[in-house]
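Action item from last meeting closed. Structure (268 res):
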């Protein structure tokens, strides 16, 4: 990717919506695969009462829309202002009691795990069935659309996140006497541009340098915290559609959630 193309992909603009100020990508096609569209607001005439506590709206009890779900509530039921980075809001926005905790968890992802994913870690990387792994640094691109892999010299590869079809986490066996399973690697299957069928890629935390191994396992753990995919991804008319086999809500995010659940149940 030339730096000019990279800069174009990262260009952003400020837009004002009824819900607040948003900093969105200049080109819709360059949006984050973790991004969410703003919901349509339930029209005022369809909600004479709070959709949570049933209080009737009047001159004193004003209605407010939750910025995440678009439903209509009184101030008590929709008074929390929480960051909503997936919709690109610049400031915390009003959310209902159902949406606020979800956004808080995601804010934790954006504040902590995302930084790890962007800074990257060193892995032993195997492509397809090749036997000898390459040492490469893997990181998420700044617009979150690509996993970028850099090895020695000019060895550069990229995997588009939206084209990842499945992810399997590789873990170390549970230590005797209980404890947490540790992610030691990740196998992902994706459709590479111009390639038939699925391509496979395996990242493994190296055994040698202790510092880089710790960074690699932290990077893998951060991948577990990736927010679940939106129900439908907005079509990008500017782009050539991916092959039918890849035209899906990225399953990999769902798979990650499943892996995370597995982890959580093991942790207990
Ligand atoms: Zn209410
Ligand atoms: Zn809500």
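Sequence:
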């Amino acid at each position: 990717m030339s730096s000019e193309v990279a800069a174009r992909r990262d260009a952003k603009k400020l837009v004002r919506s009824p819900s607040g100020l948003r900093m969105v990508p200049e080109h819709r096609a360059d949006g984050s695969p973790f991004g969410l569209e703003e919901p349509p607001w339930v029209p005022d005439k369809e909600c004479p009462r709070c959709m949570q506590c049933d209080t009737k709206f009047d001159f004193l009890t004003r209605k407010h829309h939750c910025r995440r779900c678009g439903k209509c509530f009184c101030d008590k039921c929709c008074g929390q202002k929480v960051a909503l980075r997936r919709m690109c809001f610049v400031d915390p926005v009003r959310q209902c009691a159902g949406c606020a905790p979800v956004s808080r968890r995601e804010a934790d992802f954006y504040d902590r795990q995302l930084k790890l994913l962007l800074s990257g870690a060193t892995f032993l990387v195997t492509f397809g069935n090749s036997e000898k792994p390459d040492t490469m640094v893997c990181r998420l691109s700044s617009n979150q659309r690509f996993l970028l892999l850099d090895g020695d010299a000019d060895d550069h590869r990229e995997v588009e996140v939206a084209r990842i079809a499945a992810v399997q986490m590789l873990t170390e066996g549970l230590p005797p006497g209980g404890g947490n399973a540790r992610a030691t690697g990740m196998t992902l299957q994706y459709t590479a541009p111009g390639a038939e069928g699925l391509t496979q890629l395996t990242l493994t935390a190296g055994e040698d340098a202790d510092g880089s191994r710790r960074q690699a396992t932290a990077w893998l753990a951060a991948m577990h915290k990736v927010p679940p995919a939106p129900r439908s991804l907005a079509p990008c008319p500017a782009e050539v559609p991916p092959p039918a086999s890849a035209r899906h809500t990225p399953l990999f995010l769902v798979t990650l959630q499943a892996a995370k659940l597995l982890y959580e149940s093991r942790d207990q």
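Note appended to the action item: The chain has two domains: 10-111, 120-226+244-267.
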